[in-house]
Amino acid sequence: MTLFLKKPRPQLVIDISDVSYYDIDMEDFLAMIKACIFDLDGTIGNTLDSMVYSVNLTLKEMNLSEISKEQCREFVGNGARVLMEKALDASGNPGATRIEEGMQIYGRIFDENCTYHVTPCEGVPEMLYKLKKQGVKLAVLSNKPHCQAVKAVHAIYGEKLFDWVQGQKDEIPRKPDPAGVFYVAKKLGVDYKECLYVGDSEVDVVTGKNAGVKTIAVTWGFRTKEELMIAGAQYMIDKAEKLQEYL
Questions:
Q1: Does the pLDDT of residue 17 top 50, yes or no?
Q2: Model pLDDT, residue 245
Q3: N or C: which terminus of the chain has fewer CB atoms within 10 Å of its end residue's CB?
Q4: 18 is an active site residue
Q5: Among 25, 39, 111, 204, which one carries the catalytic annotation?
């Protein structure tokens, strides 16, 4: 079933197979949201260079070959450990048997370089400031290690724009487990059903559905529109300003 949003507002890219999941349409929902929870890498921040740089410094220290930027783009999204497992497997350590050594080295190197060349995604700062002005609470939920997630967000946007920044911690299962969404909503003081979740990967699409929250996938990040559609994305935008137009 194909669903279109009401005119005159622009269409979000939609291909909905389970309409019951969205019991009210997105336009009506956007008018009542109290908080937006954003993924970090590829969604609000251009952070790929920091990860490529840190992974390759780690591999060099381990006497392994480097990975390419495109390989790193494919590997990210599921947290630092999965990133390193895939990087090790691709660089001369089949099965990532040296993962514990790699994580120790990467943890040190990435902590020093997590803000390397990080910049805001195009149009995102303007969109975020508009939401803030409208009284919408803003948060980040990332699979990046918590300390580095906080450092990256603060390096890009300062310390006052977001009401809460949450990275990966042992006590909170990483996405696509919905626990992080519920945790962040509680910290923001809102019901999770009043939150909009925004991300750029298949992990984010599944996270939103697992949490039962309205979710918009962005196509300017680490995954293509086609990959997001395969993952089950039901609402997509290709420019940050398109989200602004709905709010």
A1: no
A2: 67
A3: N
A4: no
A5: 39
